């Protein structure tokens, strides 16, 4: 529910109304606007009586929000949220961020080498999976803590903040301690216990869209994290399952404008998992920038043919650098370029 307050409403009247509402068990987000102040109400608003609220002298209008998400809703929070990751702003009108790195951490040297190349190319963060959600229980499951520590060493060498996937609550402390941006993978998008636990940290969360989830379900998962007390959520579109077989998934680029319209959260695109094919990564990255995405997360490997996972969709560092060079031209047109950070 949104309560628009009258321009001339006194501070005292607004405060009184806020207290009355909070007594009824809802949270009040006060938004100071240029023309009107607004109260965004979160919680069980069904029990509130609109007419009674309207009877307050300081109230101009009461609007019920039809969407089931409140904290993520742009109506409740009109300004873009900018999430800081290891000192780098993501979202709003800030430069587009490019994250690069291997699908899986394969060792300290491997990840350090890739980190150096990602940085030279203009990437601003390093990705690397240490806990891997694999379809087969017999496939490589990740280097786990050793992999996370290899990422930490690569960060020490390059200064790049690190991004890695958390699969279970029992590793949250490890991630809170070492990782700059905690990735929640497509397969865990609706693991509600995990989402609720993310409120225990204020570390930014990269929430990937589920394999076959609607945008509303995805936003509701973000809502879980926000409602648990962590406001730092970045969404990531990574392709969804469709009947199409020529690509690993179908990249739903319409998610960018839709998410921006419905929510205030930053959104980045993962063209690697979306296509499953390195030769499609550049074109989809350029399209994502043009569509207004706040960033890209791309798999990079110097020897894709030898990669322990997802080699077919990994770019060699040279191609990754070329992609950033081309993307910069589009980012500049959109006013989101930044030569010193790749874009
Ligand atoms: C990944 O980023 O390595 C990954 C497993 O991605 P997704 O969860 O999108 O499949
Ligand atoms: Mn991968």
First-last Cα distance = 39 Å
Largest sheet: spatial strand order: 7-8-9-10-11-12-13-14
CATH topology of the largest domain: TIM Barrel
Helix content: 25-40%
By CATH reckoning, the class of the largest domain would read: Alpha Beta
**Count of folded domains:** 2
Shape field? elongated
Secondary-structure element string? EHEEHEEEEHEHEHEHEHEHEHHEH
Low-confidence stretches: none
Average pLDDT, rounded to a whole number, is: 96
Bound molecules: phosphoenolpyruvate, manganese (II) ion
Sheet having the most strands: 8 strands, parallel, barrel
Number of strands: 14
Give the C-alpha Rg. 21 Å
State the fourth-level CATH superfamily of the largest domain.
Aldolase class I
Task: Name the beta content range.
Answer: 15-25%
The total count of helices amounts to 11
CATH architecture of the largest domain: Alpha-Beta Barrel
Structural class: alpha/beta
Can you describe this structure?
It is a single chain. Helices cover 34% and strands 17% of the residues. It is α/β, with parallel strands linked by helices and 343 residues long. It has 2 domains: 2-63, Alpha-Beta Plaits; 83-333, Aldolase class I (TIM Barrel, Alpha-Beta Barrel), CATH 3.20.20.70. It has an 8-stranded parallel β-barrel with strand order 7-8-9-10-11-12-13-14, surrounded by 6 helices. A 4-stranded antiparallel sheet has the order 2-3-1-4. Strand 7, helix 3 (108-121) and strand 8 (125-127) form a beta-alpha-beta unit. The two termini are 39 Å apart. The model has no long low-confidence stretch (mean pLDDT 96). Manganese (II) ion (MN) is lined by residues 103, 273, 299, 309-310.
């Amino acid at each position: 529910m949104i309560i628009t307050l009258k321009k001339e409403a006194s501070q005292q009247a607004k405060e009184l109304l806020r207290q009355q509402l909070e007594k009824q068990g809802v949270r009040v987000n006060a938004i100071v606007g240029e023309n009107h102040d607004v109260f965004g109400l979160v919680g069980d608003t069904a029990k509130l009586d609109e007419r009674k609220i309207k009877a307050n002298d300081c109230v101009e209008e009461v609007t019920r929000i039809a969407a089931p998400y409140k904290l993520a809703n742009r109506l409740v929070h009109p300004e873009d949220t900018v999430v800081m990751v290891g000192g780098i702003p993501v979202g709003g009108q800030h430069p587009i961020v490019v994250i690069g790195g291997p699908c899986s951490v394969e060792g300290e040297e491997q990840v350090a080498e890739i980190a150096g190349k990602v940085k030279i190319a203009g990437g601003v963060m390093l990705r690397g999976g240490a806990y891997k959600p694999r379809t087969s229980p017999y496939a490589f499951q990740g280097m786990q803590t050793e992999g996370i520590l290899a990422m930490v060493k690569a960060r020490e060498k390059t200064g790049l903040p690190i991004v890695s996937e958390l699969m279970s609550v029992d590793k949250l402390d490890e991630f809170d301690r070492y990782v700059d941006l905690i990735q929640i993978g497509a397969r865990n998008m609706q693991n509600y216990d995990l989402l609720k636990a993310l409120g225990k940290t204020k570390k930014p969360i990269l929430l990937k869209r589920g394999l076959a989830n609607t945008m509303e379900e995805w936003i509701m998962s973000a809502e879980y994290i926000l409602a648990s007390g962590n406001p730092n959520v970045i969404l990531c579109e990574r392709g969804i399952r469709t009947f199409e077989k020529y690509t690993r998934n179908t990249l739903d680029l319409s998610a960018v404008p839709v998410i921006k319209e419905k929510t205030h959260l930053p959104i980045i695109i993962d063209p690697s998992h979306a296509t499953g094919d390195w030769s499609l990564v550049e074109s989809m990255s350029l399209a994502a920038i043009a569509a207004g995405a706040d960033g890209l997360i791309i798999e990079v490997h110097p020897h894709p043919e030898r990669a322990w996972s997802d080699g077919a969709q990994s770019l060699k560092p040279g191609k990754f650098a070329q992609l950033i060079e081309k993307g910069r031209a589009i980012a500049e047109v959109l006013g989101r370029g930044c030569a010193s950070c790749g874009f």
